[in-house]
Amino acid sequence: MDNTRASLINRIWTSVKIMLGLMVAWLVISQYFGGHRAESARAAILDRFQQQRNSRVIAMIHRQETVSLFGVPVSSSISVDDSEAILRAIRLTPPDRPIDLILHTPGGLLLAAEQIAKALVDHKGKVTVFVPHYAMSGGTLMALAADQIVMDPNAVLGPVDPQIGDMPAASIIRVVEMKKPPAVGDEMLVLADMAVKARVQTTTFVVEVLLKHLPKEKAISLATVLSDGRFTHDFPIMVESARELGLPISTDMPPIIYELMDLYPQTGAGRPSVFYVPLRRTFGDRPGRDTSPSAGEKKP
User: Fold this and answer.
1) Structural domain tally of the chain?
2) Is 161's pLDDT higher than 60?
3) Helix ranges (DSSP H) in 180-298
4) What CATH number is given to the structural domain containing 120?
C-alpha cells in the first residue's frame, strides 16, 4: 500500500512539474513573439509617418510597465540611454531634413533632457514635437527646442523647475529664507546652495533654448516663469496656457500618432523606449549610410 501511495505521489509531482514547465515556456514564448510583433507594428507606423512627412521620425514613449509574470509596476523616464539613442538618430539625419519627435514622458534625468534639447536646437531642419498626452519636466524642456509643438487639445506640458533629490529647489531655498541660516542644519544649507546653483543653471539653459525662436527679453521672461518654482512640478500647462506663454502650439494632431500610442499598452518590461527607422535614400541626400536598426535602438 505504501509503495502504491508513494508511486502515485511521484506521478502527481512529475505531472505538476511538467505543467509548470509548460506554463513557463508558454509565457516566455508568448512574450517574446508578442513583443516582436508589437515592435514590428510600431516600426511600420513610424516608417509610414516618416514617408508622409519626408522627415526623420523619432518616438520617445514612456509608459508605466507591468511585468506580466510578477505584476510588479516599473516606472519609465528619460535616461542617458534615451539621450544616446536620440542623439544617434539626429546625427544620422541630414542637416536640412525635418525632425519629428513624438513625446510621451513624465520627465527624468535633466542631463539627458538637456543633451537632447541642445541637439534639437542645433539641427538646421524644422523640428516638430508631437505631444499626444503629456510631456512633463524634461519632456517640456525638449519641446521648447521645437519650431512647432503639436498637442492634443487635452495634452499638457509642465514646469521645468529643478529638483534636488525628491525636493523642489525653490522650496529648499524658501525654507532657508524663512527659518534663517542659523536655525537650519548644515545638510539643508548644502542643499540650499545646490538649489540656488540648479535654478541659475536651469534658467540659463532654458533661455539658450528659447533664443532659437524668441527675442532675449521674452526668452528670459518665459524661462523664469517655467523654472523659478512658482508652480508645483506637476502643474499642467494646457494648450491655452501654453499659447498665452508664447509657445508655438498647434492642435492639428495627425491620427497616425494615436495609432502609434495604441501600440504601447501596459506590457512587459524589456523593450526600448526610443524607436526610429532608417531613412530611405533619395536623390540629393548627402553621402553616408544610415545603419540605424529598424526596430529601435537596443542596448546590450
Assistant:
1) 1
2) yes
3) 186-210, 216-227, 239-244, 255-262
4) 3.90.226
